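Person: Show me a sequence?

Helper:
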Amino acid sequence: MKKAQTIPFNFGGLPRDEWTWENSRVVFLPVPYDLTTSYLPGARRGPMAILEASTHMELFDEVLERETARIGFYSLDPLEALASGPEEMVGLIQTFVEPVLRADKFPVVIGGEHTVTVGTARAVKEKYPRLSFLQLDAHADLRDSYEGTPFSHACVGRRLAELGPLIQVGMRSLSLEENLYLKDAPVKS
């Protein structure tokens, strides 16, 4: 009987024996997390949906005229969400991104809700102290705290602004608290 072909469950559906940690320059970390989502839960399904969809796309870039995956794409296993709270999750994400950066690889963290950005940003900021941030979002996410935690999805912009310069694009709504913060903060909206 002929062995069935399988599609590897990684970014791009690339053959597992072709791309290893050692020969890859880009490392994908799926983080299926949505503990602080306040409107519709389900963001935790995003990373798996992105990985699955990536197995059906072409990997050739017509502008670069090359298959971009040839620089080496390596996918880590999905990070298990912690139920102990968003602050601990932010710390866990940071500890997973740090070795990627130490190995001089480019981390691509696929969330989940916005909170996954904070752990990633902290790790990258350690390596690149002059880092600035560009936030593409319909909401300001500049609250100091939301629903009892400063690590809510609604606080991500504020946490990023504390780490470095933040530019926000696409914002269409914000709270009174966020508006007052913007009047004094170094955020460009």
User: Anything to note?
Assistant: The helical segments are 46-54, 86-102, 116-127, 156-163, 176-184. The mean pLDDT is 91. The chain has five helices and seven strands.
